[in-house]
Amino acid sequence: MPVYNPPVKDLSFVLHETLNVHESDVPGYDELDRDFTSAILEEAGKIARDVMAPLNAVGDQEGCTLDNGVVRTPKGFKEAFDTQREGGWTGLDCDPEYGGQGMPYVLATAVGETFSAANMAFNMYAGLTHGAYSAIHAHGTDEQKATFLPKMVTCEWTGTMNLTEPHCGTDLGLMRTKAEPQDDGSYKISGQKIFISAGDHDMSDNVIHLVLAKIPGGPEGVKGISLFIVPKFLVNEDGSVGARNGVSVGSIEEKMGIHGNSTCVMNYDEATGYLLGTEHKGMRAMFTMMNEARLGVGLQGYAQAEVAYQNAVEYAKDRLQGRAVTGVENPDGPADPLIVHPDIRRNLMDQKSFVEGARAFALWGATLIDAHHRAGDADANGLISLMTPVIKGFLTDKGFDMTIQAQQVYGGHGYIEEWGMSQFARDARIAMIYEGANGVQALDLVGRKLAQDGGKHVMAFFDLVKSFIKENEGNEALKADFLDPLKAASKDLQAAGMFFMQNGMKNPNAALSGSTDFMHLFGHVCLGLMWARMAKAAQAALDAGTGDAAFYETKIATGRYYMQRQLPATAMHLARINSGADTVMALDAEAF
Amino acid sequence: MPVYNPPVKDLSFVLHETLNVHESDVPGYDELDRDFTSAILEEAGKIARDVMAPLNAVGDQEGCTLDNGVVRTPKGFKEAFDTQREGGWTGLDCDPEYGGQGMPYVLATAVGETFSAANMAFNMYAGLTHGAYSAIHAHGTDEQKATFLPKMVTCEWTGTMNLTEPHCGTDLGLMRTKAEPQDDGSYKISGQKIFISAGDHDMSDNVIHLVLAKIPGGPEGVKGISLFIVPKFLVNEDGSVGARNGVSVGSIEEKMGIHGNSTCVMNYDEATGYLLGTEHKGMRAMFTMMNEARLGVGLQGYAQAEVAYQNAVEYAKDRLQGRAVTGVENPDGPADPLIVHPDIRRNLMDQKSFVEGARAFALWGATLIDAHHRAGDADANGLISLMTPVIKGFLTDKGFDMTIQAQQVYGGHGYIEEWGMSQFARDARIAMIYEGANGVQALDLVGRKLAQDGGKHVMAFFDLVKSFIKENEGNEALKADFLDPLKAASKDLQAAGMFFMQNGMKNPNAALSGSTDFMHLFGHVCLGLMWARMAKAAQAALDAGTGDAAFYETKIATGRYYMQRQLPATAMHLARINSGADTVMALDAEAF
């Protein structure tokens, strides 16, 4: 049975010693003192560990079933969802006007990591609801907000996102779902949507579907897409749940993982829908959900790596196999634990240094969102807009790789479902795909975000790196181990950007052939920056003689590992990028 | 429904234009003219495509079941096994004295790729039998050979390898299974073995288990291990199947993949066993099977990548999504096919360039085995001994990565089991683990094989690379695109070897911390050498104006991709290796 222990101490270190959230002047951050966030994280952690994690394997084994039109979730899910709802966890960062707790997003992100690590499939029910909440909150009328948000904040009603159709995923311009305007101002929605996470289930009184559809006669392609609120049950004037709407579940998909989440084919048959936002501007409204969802997916990537890592460590300490090459370390046992072996160490250090760097990166991203939402900081918005594909793409690609490495520590037992390591990998796999496959993230990064606002945001990122290096260049403890490798990696990133600038205009393929490599290169530099910041904080604490010295020493040693062993990847990515499109595009399609 | 088309043309190119098997003076190779091997590969390919591949998804969905002590294989497996047996495919390279066809191992390897790609789980029944055949052939008495081999060549009786126990996998010294000597010269075997592939099933009249066990009173550790033949049914004097032996199936493991293969817990309860080879020298005999199995597993790794690649290409050509950045390419359709997009190309080229390089590498390895077995070539034996962990570890790590990349091409559909891409990845995953987890392969490579015979074999490999470069340095078509990158990569490999030599003695951890990186670095250089050889052959054919020019041009373009986009990884691996053990071994176990 896999274990999960919420990394409260490390979350706290990132929040308070690396990002210094309590010193920020972003409204609401003044509440985030260490005692307060620790109390929240401890409570959340208990639910993650004691309520959600024990249901992770149950969800995988039982899956969801469709029985006479009713979707049933695995045993125990409803009770766990009640616990999550009743504790107010689903509305942690929601608007108090609608019953939310009004906490900053960064705290919800920290809590979200523990929930997602404990049970990814389960947490998608609340996660999708949050996305739908945000879209209605940002684009809904006062009446729509009053009708839907209070119930969604509490997850009495859950939400979904309906984008994909059988013949179109990324290319939503091909969409066929139609919305016929009715005399009463509502629309009749007809069409089929697939891959709808949390599409239907037996845990809430209503499901509020946000559905992209085309109003006949509107512009072609994505410019003619509108967004609609389509409740499973219509809502009576008094706010109570009314008649069943014309939406039904066609089937539940058989997936590689996240079996605990009901991924549905949804059929809309003249279902009543209400326009959300403006006609034909549905893509913009959808992106409110989508950008949030992409950050949430990045978090899923490293959260699965975290829980897989924890189990790999346990196994490596317990399993006795072979002797240390430098001499017996466990003379009373028949063999030494796996953890004495250098290649097992190398594997575990890859995981540890990735997860901790990713955590800092994701939480830093969350502070940028707060700065934008709470303080109207346009620069922060530009930066997180640039970073979103990196957080989504890099953290899920690497997060999946790390679950595979964690599984490897178990040898043959890793391949047996009973041990749970296969599930972490199978669940993590989807994060590379949904909310825009990672190739699409890379395209978004290189094809759109880099040049956004005249390249201002990527320049701002480079300035961040440069000024951090400059401010700290007198810090001997950081120089060789952190600042120098960060500077080298950052130069590789700039060189890649330069290659795109010089070649992308005359041959867009030359830039896009390097898009995935660029996303990874960028991710490494971000984690390098995070590690440099964390090492600085840890060193400062050590110098001051405050706190748990062993924790800070471990932090610095782990950062050194990342800088020495992971950052050298930037040169490889740059070499690939610099090779351009010639070999990538050389073959005719028939030659494959 | 996934497709599989045996790559007969490419196998033939490798055999006859790159390795030039028909020109070799290894006994038996004179038979391998192009018409003959093509006929064999075409026939094998038909069975792979028409008989085995259609059962791949069936095996995954049904799995094997244990019913009152009887293991049942998925529907259709027995009939397919009959087709394989009746065609003589199970004994292709077996000794004619025992009913085999006596073909070189290189041809059996080429056939094996197609079988393994078509249905990995199914082919393990014959594969394990072949390994057991080889061990009995090499170490059995004349009587043992006469009793068992003819039935195993035809797979009327199948075979297994029994090494692992619940508490020991890699560290076989901890083994508990006992073999008590009996007065009649036989032994009573008692103990439990786990993860026994093809451990029992309903497709053969008998199962011949090769079981490692300790004879009480023997030396401690691995030096006290002996190997035994333990048939499921005892064999009567007339060779017919007799009484049931004391071996039974405890359970069938629930695995991440290869569901079509019955991975069993085997219980031995005073089962009658016959010593194979010498008392206490069981490890040596086992390695006859093990080395063969490791090459077979390397082949599984790239074979799964091949079939996954084929399907990814089909999907990328069929699925219409988005428009080419350089202008519409499919004006009559609602969108362009995925294959126009640079990042999809990058993904497919990664796969294609890996698989074709891996194929050449595996078949080259098979020629070394033939040279050793058929011509007593000790140098060839040294080289393949060095290469075995690289073939196993590198081809399965990368092969799995490529199945994941192939799955990614499908977007959301890749995660749905129905499309079959998940199965390729889940099946390929085991190849990184069994027959020695890849970390153990890396340890074998760096800790044992590098220094074997005074480092003679690695020097021989470097000489091979150097002389290839030297012989061809006047070839302008090869120089910049192939020879220069190969030289650079090979220098990285030598530098890594030098680092190990200078540091490994005084600090073994410094070498072993870089073992996995070294295995990958070595693998890239091997594939680089293969690509240089293939490019030379293709260029020669183009210059001569013979054959299918488009095929040769594609070959060269694919090779250029590998050299430009994959070989830069060697510098990253070297940088990691050069960082030594400091950061890898920095933490106390408690700090993880």
From TrEMBL, chains A, B:
InterPro entries reported in the protein's UniProt record: Acyl-CoA_dh-like_C_dom, Acyl-CoA_Oxase/DH_mid-dom, Acyl-CoA_Oxase/DH_mid-dom_sf, AcylCo_DH-like_C, AcylCo_DH/oxidase_C, AcylCoA_DH/ox_N, AcylCoA_DH/ox_N_sf, AcylCoA_DH/oxidase_NM_dom_sf
Positions of the Acyl-CoA dehydrogenase/oxidase C-terminal domain: 281-444
Domain of life the protein comes from: Bacteria
GO molecular function terms listed in the Swiss-Prot or TrEMBL record: flavin adenine dinucleotide binding; oxidoreductase activity, acting on the CH-CH group of donors
Ranges for domain Acyl-CoA dehydrogenase/oxidase N-terminal: 78-155
Acetyl-CoA dehydrogenase-like C-terminal domain segment(s): 461-588
EC number: 1.3.99.41
Keywords (A to Z) from UniProt: FAD, Flavoprotein, Oxidoreductase
Transmembrane residue ranges: none
Necessary cofactors: FAD
Catalysis performed (reactions): 3-(methylsulfanyl)propanoyl-CoA + oxidized [electron-transfer flavoprotein] + H(+) = 3-(methylsulfanyl)acryloyl-CoA + reduced [electron-transfer flavoprotein]
Pfam families: Acyl-CoA_dh_1, Acyl-CoA_dh_C, Acyl-CoA_dh_M, Acyl-CoA_dh_N
Enzyme class: oxidoreductase
SUPFAM superfamilies documented for this protein: Acyl-CoA dehydrogenase C-terminal domain-like, Acyl-CoA dehydrogenase NM domain-like
Domain Acyl-CoA oxidase/dehydrogenase middle: 161-269
Family per record: Belongs to the acyl-CoA dehydrogenase family.
Function field: Involved in the assimilation of dimethylsulphoniopropionate (DMSP), an important compound in the fixation of carbon in marine phytoplankton, by mediating the conversion of 3-(methylthio)propanoyl-CoA (MMPA-CoA) to 3-(methylthio)acryloyl-CoA (MTA-CoA).
Name this polypeptide is given: 3-methylmercaptopropionyl-CoA dehydrogenase
